[in-house]
Amino acid sequence: MATSAVPKHHNCAVQVEERISCGRFGTSPSDCEKKGCCMDLFKHSCYYPLDECTVDQHAVFAIRHDCAAIPVDPRKIISGGPHCKPAIVNDKEVGDMKIYMIEVHIIVSALNLKYGIITRNDPLRFLIECRYMKHGGVVAEQSIASIGYMVKASTSNLPSSIISSGRHSVQLKIAKDRSYSSYLPTYHQPLQLLLGHPVYLELSLRSSKPEAVLLVNYCLAYPRSAKNALVLIHEGCANPNDPTVSILEVNDRPQNRHQRRFSVKAFQFMDHSTNLYLNEEIYFMCSTEVCMPIEKPCEERCFDGKGPNWFVDKLGLNANN
């Protein structure tokens, strides 16, 4: 990827009252574009695009009140710090990508009533992701992907789900056994499994376009503290350094390209300094893409029954970061 040209953004249609200034007042259009920002020539103002990862490594995103099945109160959102710094930022490397993940969560207010303590807040957590390509160990000056969202519920059994007005949605599920005939419901989490027990995971695409193809950029497992990460899948192939991660076939593959299945044996993260178990929940997360064959090739090595090719050479990183 060349770094001389700055990509054009498509999310500059931001209402004036929602604009965040990019640079100082009077920034020239050329300097504004170099930052990956938007220019209003009539108002002579430079502002950040919405839901984009910009060249100067800023992420401006909006969490709407209707982004989940249970309405979100924007006044209850926490992003940490007096200067609106993110609550949690994970800085990870996967292959030739530099990945930043920001976690924002909802304040859970407790009501101490006469006969007990209750809450009416859904403990949602929002994970926002930016991906940048690296060149020679340095983050390139342009992003390779727009910002990505994930809505995560805590251990609560409240019926929270993403509301999407788009044509595609992707869901990560855990099957009860290797037959993938039934799945564990959301309220069943967190799971308690013996170490070494197989965990069967499935990514499924819901799309009005039967020709759409689900591609897997990567899948990670990480503990609640987010101080470690284990790469399970990268560019559609299992981590060759972990023989317990397996790509599984779907019965009618390659015709069915709306499902991707893989398994991993249950494990527990350990503290680097003491070699003691970290008593923390482990989360699975996948970054996916909906690909249309009429627009570009949608081949995906291992999930499509092909070899990993350059995966071993490209994945030159520590599993625990």
Automatic annotation (TrEMBL):
Q: How does it sit in the membrane?
A: Single-pass type I membrane protein
Q: Can the keyword Endoplasmic reticulum be found in this entry's annotation?
A: no
Task: Name the predominant localization.
Answer: membrane
Q: Where in the cell is it found?
A: Cell membrane; Zona pellucida
Q: From which domain of life does this come?
A: Eukaryota
**InterPro entries under this entry?**
P_trefoil_dom (IPR000519), P_trefoil_dom_sf (IPR044913), Zona_Pellucida_Domain_gp (IPR051148), ZP-C (IPR055355), ZP-C_dom (IPR042235), ZP_dom (IPR001507)
Question: Which terms are listed as keywords in the entry?
Answer: Cell membrane, Cleavage on pair of basic residues, Disulfide bond, Extracellular matrix, Fertilization, Membrane, Secreted, Transmembrane, Transmembrane helix
> Which residue range or ranges hold the ZP domain?
11-309
Tell me which residues make up the P-type domain: 10-50
PANTHER family this protein is in?
A: ZONA PELLUCIDA SPERM-BINDING PROTEIN (PTHR23343), ZONA PELLUCIDA SPERM-BINDING PROTEIN 4-LIKE ISOFORM X1 (PTHR23343:SF117)
Q: What is this protein called?
A: Uncharacterized protein
Query: From which organism does this entry originate?
Result: Characodon lateralis
The taxonomy runs: Eukaryota, Metazoa, Chordata, Craniata, Vertebrata
